[in-house]
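Example A, followed by Example B.
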Amino acid sequence: MVDRCNPLFQLRKLLVRVQQTYSPFICQFTISVMQLSRILSAILCAASGSLALTPDFKLPDNYTKFEYRIPMRDGVRLFTAVYVPKDRSQKYPFLVTRTPYSVAPYGLHHFPRMLGPGSKFAAEKFIFVYQDVRGRFMSEGVWKEMTPEHNVHSGPKDADESTDTYDTIDWLLKNVPGNNGKAGLVGISYPGFYTSAGMIDAHPALLAASPQAPVSDLYMGDDAFHNGAFFLAANFSFYRIFGKQDNPTSHAEEPLFSYPTKDGYAFYLDLGSVANSNPKYFHFRNLYWTDVLDHPNYDAFWKERDILPHLQNIRPAVLVVGGWFDAEDLAGTLKTFRDIETQSPNTKETLVMGPWSHGGWARTEGDRLGDIHFDAKTSDYFQNEIELPFFLHYLKGAADPKLSRAIVFETGKNRWHNEDQWPPSNTQTMHLYFRASRSIDQSPPTEAGAFDEYVSDPNNPVPFVAKPTDAMPREYMDADQRFLEGRADVLTYVTKPLETDLTMVGPVSPKLFVATTGTDSDYVVKLIDVFPDAAASLAGYRELVRGEPFRGKFRHSFERPAAFVPAHIEKIAFSMPDIDHCFLKGHRIMIQIQSSWFPLVDRNPQTFTNIPTAKPDDYRTATERVYRSADAASEVEVRVECPSALESSCSSMALK
């Protein structure tokens, strides 16, 4: 959903900086979202070699553009731009992208910088189709957040995103000449959701689909909530520019929001509870934002928007794509793959996971993220060796690329792997127990009643990045954590230097035994790779490998939150999204525990209350205990990869 790689979002951030710098000269500044999309598309494409077409291939010379209003079964018409190859010597398949972010530029003589999900698609010749989804921009109808999927499509009133996709493909086949009777779907982020929806009860002509970083369940780990904790900075930024439109319109004017400070930590702390944003900034005009604040629990509102239970009997071949450092829809990517695998076992499905941020495989070279380098242009490899061959095979009859079940990039060692399943089968469980002297050991503690503790103050929350920012920088996902050294409200446990390389694959599963003097608390768990102090590059760096919050009130149920009994020991167990990371010989494994991660996550007042509407006196300090005793052994459970010859000992040899 919160597609900060979308041109609209990125250029708005740029223009905010311009306005802050030159505010004495700018008054009542508004801008067309269509102008933003056009301008930044050109900037991004010019800046990235992975996005640019070859200089001698010009789209207007090779494609004819058409614009249609395609009728759906309930009479609503969806605006659709279609780009047809001028070469009529053969027939071509449709490659469809459906988006809430506009199919601009509008007008028969206006072309985008690029067609297709990669730079080589246009030269390979497809009929490219871009559609404004129902209720957005030039399409009719009413837009709904994560349109609920109907269980039965029995009549015109049962229209949803799967039927809109079906009706679109059916119309295209009958009305656009020169097609070969085949269609594919592709989309990143929210368009990834529309791709997933389009696979359900699919049109017979839909033979291949690639949901990429698809939004799947907004509450359970995607953009809005992670384990009950609200991702504040990302969602505030997104909903300030994404609201209800009076469509059809190609020029939705929205006021540009200017943060009063570049320091998001100070801005959100001054805001107080999140609900204060409505009278102060949103003025109750954005119903989508209000819906999020009105539903802090996993209730029917969220459940009916979960696309995952509907991913059954999927007929097209599926290429699920995501990034290990996707701050927005990493969970949705992995769940989409697993739910198709479970609910539709006969589907031809491949998972691709690379070292990318949200959409990074399409918008960056994929050679680095922040300070961490990956030793190759991984996006080129994906686009040229996986994505394009996938669509050429299923839509144009090219050779079968024989893609593995899972194609994954191992960070740390920086290499690709082909796996016949994900997670791979050659793994063993490793238990990382918290021990005395803030150490980590594979053997459980034997002491009675042992614990470590810290005081958490919601009015002095732990920051999630080192430098002030009013955004959610994508680099936070692998950022150096040394900036937190010395904070008394962060518990740090660490191993000795590893004796051998150790690769962790699959989910990371904390099991904490905690007690608090408050009646509610958050617990943030971070898995960190500590580089040697003598390393040739990034000496002493503490690379975040995976981190997630858990809102304590939901330890028993996300539907029915429950208060803590002060000083009573409780168990909190959950899973964080998968990793494929090698901790190299000489590195150390670090685990940090804290009770805030601000303003990435909204503050927990540490009293049991409705957090979005918490009052100032609800925010209270609390003493947090993390137990490491024989009967309450806190740990993080991981899976480690084992060569077959070492299966009997691989889970222990590295930590000896």
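Example B, a separate protein, is given below in the same form.
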Amino acid sequence: MSQMANCDSPLEAAANKLLGSQPTADSRQFRTRKSPENQSRATVVYGWRSTRRGVSGEPIADRERIRSALSAVSCRLLATCGVVCILAASVPAARAEESVLASATEAERTLWEDLDKEKYVKARDEADAVLANNPDSFIGNWAMAIVHHDELSNHARALFFLKRAEEILAKKYGNPPERHRKALIEEYEILSEMDENQAALLVLDRYDALYAPKFDERRVWPLFKLGRIDEARRMTDRLMKSDDWNARMRGYNGRLALESEANHRAAAYRFAIDGIAATGERSCVLFGNAADTATTMFRLREAEELALKAVKAPERDCPQGEYNRLAQLYLMMGEFQKSLSAIESLKKTKLEKRYRAHYGLNARILTADLAYALGRVEDAERMAVELQRLPERTGMVSGSKSKERLARTVRTYVALDARANLLAERRSYRPWLDPKVMSADAMGVALAKIEASQILIQLAADGALQDVVRPNLTTVWTWQVGSLTSVLGSGVMRSAISAGRALDREQAVAASYFDALEAEVVWRGGEFGVAAALCGKALAGLPKEEALLHWRAQAIYADSMWRLGWSDVARPHYREVLQKFPSILRILDLRVPVTFAADGTALAKRALERLRGSRRFDESNSPLRVQVNSDKGGLTVCLLDENGYQFSCTTTDKVDE
């Protein structure tokens, strides 16, 4: 070890010269492109990522790896082969390409050049032509593997062509080391992204048996996902002590993912913050994942700061610039405009095609969640149902397919529930023969709700509920979890809450989250006094940044106090909810106590009588007023407070008689 450490100046200079004047020649980076790795939460959205091959060009992590590898190899060989061996370090990659290209046809050479330039659409057509003429073309099969992996995200077809290419490489070229290395790593990456972790480990075994240095840092993820936690932890312990920046970053990132998936909030946060310091505050991935761990520790402003640092981090080892995390955080905080802006930035962020299957849906997921929060339930339902039908892509996230399915199903169910409430609301103030009342839409929504409910019941029976009930641990929004009560029942929910309180007893602030959730459970059961007491505790203890959960609890508190006869206590809470988060009233199917008034015209009076039948309003002695006016055949309906403040208004140009 000491000899390697002392073998520096002329060899290090040679390595620096090589790196400074040549494209990256690392045997592990056979195609230069941006390459993030495994994510977890935010899968979202939301995830635990680390670099796959570094950023395009000559990433610092790979430069350090190459420099270290060259130095180590040179030190070992210096005694027997002298300086000539040092210079030979740059030769194998070129020879590997020559051995493949020596017998290539003109068409294969053109294909090779276009593949190298990442002209994948053109390369696919060229590869089709090459394979039609010669099915045993290595270049043709290799190109099809790359195109299907990088351009089309068709992993099964990519694996098929890659296996064929490997057979040809061995039979026709004798497995030239540099090209064989590249094939093995490509196979590992495809299998890893497919969540075929046992097969991915077997590929690494083949690699490590033939080549050095070993690929230990790539083992953490498949070991972890196969449940071999102790092995993965030991691996991260070694990697975190590495002198290699990339290995060190992967070690910390893998460890915080392990701790997070084990629901060890404090440990995950500690490894994230320590990892940022140990890697020189350079990694976008570590900053982004640290933001997630800060969220699990209920430090939302700190999470925002970390996510903003991720956006500006010098190492761009994250696929989407972390705008997805910012959009999530701003939505939780009730800062809807900021959330929308972050989603727009996310959409504008260039995402390599090979990652679109994994991350390309993030913007759509967040748009669906934002639409739901803003009360655009028809859009939210449509997008949620579309997302539910897509296959789960969990190869690059730490969560399991069952967790991803749970998050999607909750999103679908709550959107369907809100849509059902909207349709029921429309039926309550429209004539029964109105086509919008008699449509089959309501039946379709009801049937879809039943289907989603059955999936949720099964997933809960399989043990998924406990993690969801514990606040800010999963990709299921904490402010939506209360809706599961109508599916799973109050007994199941209260049992899960009780267990969650015990598990999170070391996090004092978590008690307020559980109070808010339990308040909704008992409120749905008609225990309004208990609900009011729990809401009072929750509202006093919740972080102010946890806005949507706060306003949801506030709506339940207002309804409970109104039902208990404490109207003066309820009024200011109704006002704040109507100002900040009015859509929660439909989500919870709450009635708002109001008085009704019209301007005296016949049209306004008829409209007023219809609105009196609405299930969204409860006519009572309330300072809140629904005012209906008509003008030139049109109607204006406003919700006002006693001072004339307009919570909302809607106008129609003309109403059919």
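On Example B: The chain has 34 helices and seven strands.
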